[in-house]
Amino acid sequence: MSTPAILQLGLFLLVLLALAWPLSSWITRIMQGENPGPLRFVAPLEKLLYRLAGIRQDEEMGWKSYAISLLVFNLLGVLAVYGLQRLQGALPFNPQAMAAVTPDSSFNTAISFVTNTNWQGYGGETTMSYLTQMLGLTVQNFLSAATGAAVVIALIRGFARHSSARIGNFWVDVTRFTAYILLPLSLVFALALTQQGVIQNLLPYQTAHTVEATHFQQAKLDAQGNPLKDKDGKPIMVDSQTQQQTLPMGPVASQEAIKMLGTNGGGFFNANSAHPFENPTPLSNFLQDLAIFLIPAALCFVFGRMVGDRRQGWAILAAMLLMFATAVVVETSAEQAGVPQLSAMGVDQQASSLQSGGNMEGKESRFGIIDTALFTVVTTSASCGAVNAMHDSLTPIGGMVPTFLMQLGEVVFGGVGSGLYGMLVFAILAVFIAGLMVGRTPEYLGKKIETYEMKMTAITILVTPILVLVLTAIAVSVDAGKAGIANPGAHGFSEILYAFTSAANNNGSAFAGLSANTPFYNIMTGIAMFFGRFLMIVPILAIAGSLSAKKRLAVNAGTLPTHGPLFVVLLIGTVLLVGALNYVPALALGPVVEHLHMVSGH
Amino acid sequence: MLKTLRPALLLFAMLSLLTGLAYPLLTTALAQALFPQQANGSLIEKNGQIIGSRLIGQQFSGDKYFWGRPSATSPMAYNAGSSGGSNLGPTNQAQLDAVKANLDHLRQAHPTQTATVPVDLVTASASGLDPEISLAAAYYQLERVAQARGMPLARLHQLVDDHIIGETFGLLGEPRVNVLELNLALDAVK
């Protein structure tokens, strides 16, 4: 890593912690039902929502009611997003007259946005009306993040309370997290992004008359608009030129802000955060990096505050930070090294004061290698999935780092709520393993970890690897799966592995060469996203309910301290061990083979 | 079940209106009031006609202009109606062939240039709309443009240097040149 790369990483972490700490105090206050201080003026609106919906604010739920409420609420989201896409042609805010989206793509996108994955099989600027973007996708950007946050808050209550059967009120948790945390942050962030150049309007697409004409070839069409073919069956191409450029428009900044803050990652445009209208400057890029990590980092501190021992939050955060920083170093080095085959042709990939050098395929000039590598690791450590570069064109090791970060279960910061609840499950596993080693009943934060918790933990930890590996195996075995591959050889396998890794772990980024907007991939990744999300949430709520009902044990000489360096190492070891055991064979077949292929010069 | 359905439906509907209409429309109103130029796409107009956006690259191929990065959008390069990259992997032969073709074309167009070719001039950007190139890429093209315009090299060099966008806070991003703005400035030189 070069000096600027180290400085940027240092600055990023410094600003992140400086913002996350005060935010954690605010989140704790809001989620414990206290007075929203400066946002008091929103409180009457909150009360009105509860009154109209028939919700009793002080009525807490057991874990089963909490889980059922959550599932019903999210299923309504799936129906709404599906319906909006199918009907968008007949609805307002559609200046480009976008037609209905196909049923399989609508199904996939509905699940994708409700599960906080935001995997995109479609290109936004060619598919979605402004109404669908706002009332369908933006809404789920908020509500899926609030759902994740609600679950982790319920789990923390499980640790913090004792001898209680209740873990909170789902409706109240979702409403308060949306209204007092996500909305104000998004509004401020959206305006900051606009100032940098992110667009925010409801105009139809504009046409620019460009300085020079662009020459290109396009398929010749018959009167019905079908491409004409020559006698070999190849489309007949004709030389064309145009001096017009269509500039897409739309309410981008408002969606971009919550896309990052809610670790959603679904871009308004096909190129996502690589698009200059979504991410125009290095500063907007840096702010997006911060926005992705802000709430996941703050939630670690919230955990410490709510269980009454701030060191517990720091320990979790320390484990995340160590894994994250290591990944940044590996990613930056791999991309900066570039591709030896290009150097052999006489391409200059050396970093200098005049260029960033490195592997610039699928990257933007304003970001170069350093900003791109940082963003790539941030977006896949967190389950965001926004991209400011095309991950399919990363070097083999540069592509393996994001793949493996997702495969760790999205617990290195992870998604809003989901990152911390995933990590807390690993913490339970870590104390269990430690307990086995010394022959004591494991306990975490004064709660005995028993058979029931360990069963739920096992389900939670195993569900995503099973989805990823089984679905990848199916996809590489059937023609419908293989048909989607864009790059030959080991890289093609990596494309499919990445797709299911991203879907099941609710990340949403892609090796986008894979043609995934087909019924096969839309349905398969839809399944991966849905079960990858809710087969984790339900057992975790069960753990929350069970822990909440337990007594709290006093600390004694035999208690494993869970706030020191020993525990941090144990936690990292557990996460890496589970990840490596599950995925090393698959990674060996994809990125590792490709890397050897590249460096040996074949 | 019904006991859950009523709050679920009503709360979902109300939060949808709040986050899906009130929030984006309020943001639009504030953005239009505070930063109208940026909110509407940082458009560049000439004689009342939109000639492009400062943020969106255009295809340049004439000898009198600086060229931007290769663009993988289809059917034509720099198609802002459909953004995206090549998605070619680094070991894919198609990728190596594409770089080779770009390289040959550049060398042919710059016969006097002996330096190695900057990587951003032969690799496609992520969005296909990258408005900028590295300083190395701009300097690489100096002689060709100077010759085509009959402009002294030193003056052109100065013009390029006047258009350098540095790192933000001396740290974030890369030094670069906006190709459309540079070319418009070139056309404006008397």
From TrEMBL, chain A:
Keywords: Cell membrane, Ion transport, Membrane, Potassium, Potassium transport, Transmembrane, Transmembrane helix, Transport
Transmembrane portions of the chain: 66-84, 134-156, 177-194, 286-307, 314-334, 411-438, 459-478, 520-544, 565-584
GO MF entry, a single one: potassium ion binding
Keyword presence, Transport: yes
Keyword Translocase: no
UniProt membrane topology term: Multi-pass membrane protein
Source superkingdom: Bacteria
Subcellular location field: Cell membrane
One GO location term (cellular component): plasma membrane
Protein family per UniProt: Belongs to the KdpA family.
Function: Part of the high-affinity ATP-driven potassium transport (or Kdp) system, which catalyzes the hydrolysis of ATP coupled with the electrogenic transport of potassium into the cytoplasm. This subunit binds the extracellular potassium ions and delivers the ions to the membrane domain of KdpB through an intramembrane tunnel.
Self-association and partners: The system is composed of three essential subunits: KdpA, KdpB and KdpC.
HAMAP family the UniProt entry points to: KdpA (MF_00275)
Record protein name field: Potassium-transporting ATPase potassium-binding subunit
Gene source species: Aquitalea aquatica
Source taxonomy: Bacteria, Pseudomonadati, Pseudomonadota, Betaproteobacteria, Neisseriales
Primary gene name: kdpA
From TrEMBL, chain B:
Broad class of the protein's primary localization: membrane
Membrane topology: Single-pass membrane protein
Key words, A-Z: ATP-binding, Cell membrane, Ion transport, Membrane, Nucleotide-binding, Potassium, Potassium transport, Transmembrane, Transmembrane helix, Transport
Keyword S-adenosyl-L-methionine carried by entry: no
Pfam families: KdpC
Lineage top rank: taxon: Bacteria
Subcellular location: Cell membrane
Keyword Nucleotide-binding: yes
Gene Ontology molecular function, alphabetical: ATP binding; P-type potassium transmembrane transporter activity
GO cellular component, one term: plasma membrane
Family membership: Belongs to the KdpC family.
Assembly with partners or alone: The system is composed of three essential subunits: KdpA, KdpB and KdpC.
Function: Part of the high-affinity ATP-driven potassium transport (or Kdp) system, which catalyzes the hydrolysis of ATP coupled with the electrogenic transport of potassium into the cytoplasm. This subunit acts as a catalytic chaperone that increases the ATP-binding affinity of the ATP-hydrolyzing subunit KdpB by the formation of a transient KdpB/KdpC/ATP ternary complex.
Alphabetized NCBIfam families for the sequence: kdpC, PRK00315.1
Protein name: Potassium-transporting ATPase KdpC subunit
